[in-house]
Amino acid sequence: MSSTTTITETESSLLKLTLAYDKEIHEQYKYAAYLPVYDETTKLPALQPFVFQDRGLAADKEKPNLLPKDNPDIRATSLTPVIGTEIRGLQLSALTDPQKDELALLIAERGVVVFRDQDFKDISIAKQKAFGAYFGPLHIHPVGAHVKDTLEFHNIYLGPDNEYRARSKNNRLTTVGYHSDVSHEHQPPGITILTLLSVPPTGGDTAWASQTAAYARLSPPIKALLEGLRAEHSGFPQAEGARRDGRWVRREPVKSEHPVVRVHPATGQKALFVNPGFTKRIVGLRDEESEAILKLLFKHISLSQDLQVRVRWEEGTVALWDNRVTAHTAISDYDVHNPQEGLRHGFRITTLADKPTGVDGLESAWE
Ligand SMILES: O=C(O)CCC(=O)C(=O)O
Ligand SMILES: [Fe+2]
């Protein structure tokens, strides 16, 4: 039996409007060089282990270079008491190495740091790549769309012609899905940089949850239990989903067993390191035990607004977070089918970090 698609009149006119809009975007768009493409030829080998040195270790804890107390033009504001700092008056493209080291520490301490009023005229792809690589080796996403000729720039594009994460694609009630990016990697990401070049007038915020605070709030017996455990994080469902959608998988997925509580190498702080996006089970527990504990932790992370921050994007905003101590979610609350609601487009630069270390030297493991 052949399958047929019936398009209603409304859908058909919406489609025409959408196609006209796409054409306009692609011909006149200021950031056309950053539009999503999908290389379907590159096949990448497995990631290799590397020695990681956290830039935050070299930083002056007082941050005199990044946030000098005698410069009223540089303004840092806490977005909540627990997580998130907003900075105005600094251009990321002009930071010195001591400033970048202090920024690495600030991101680890505050979870996410949001830079406003960035001048995108100042940046080239090469310069941004070098900026990211200062913090760690650049990750190439195993399945995502990217910027042309730059696999390291993972594309974020929610417009009418790309419904990658749009609500209509799945059957869930919400688009909220907290995760730590590609946490299945053996040395998963640390500092991660998201630049949105185009933002809708309203909607499309991003939220982060502090995994440091999430850990700190647990009772001593639960902390003690979790500190001795590892959990499995898997890249397989993402790769299988991509294959099912007919997309190219450029690197075969892996699984890792990471400590459920990890210690940040620069701050020494403990953070929960499980997330609903990639964590599948707690190693060594019975299925029902693992499900019950993960359900408790996922609910804690996703529902505790008192350890989250929700950031509204403005033109010129760049957000930098530490995937080791936070979980985050896109909030896709606007209608991507409706050109009037604007375009949301940008890219993510993801740096890889340490092999997670838990309490009492508990280390990640994999086959
Ligand atoms: O688009 C967003 O708000 C965040 C998307 C995301 O999860 C990411 O860039 O890692
Ligand atoms: Fe993400």
From TrEMBL:
A single MF term (Gene Ontology): 2-oxoglutarate-dependent dioxygenase activity
A GO cellular-component term linked to this record: cytoplasm
Keyword tags: Dioxygenase, Iron, Metal-binding, Oxidoreductase
Coiled coil, from the record: none
Cofactor: Fe(2+)
Every TauD/TfdA-like domain range: 77-349
SUPFAM superfamilies: Clavaminate synthase-like (SSF51197)
Similarity comment: Belongs to the TfdA dioxygenase family.
Descriptive protein name: TfdA family taurine catabolism dioxygenase TauD
Species for this entry: Cercophora scortea
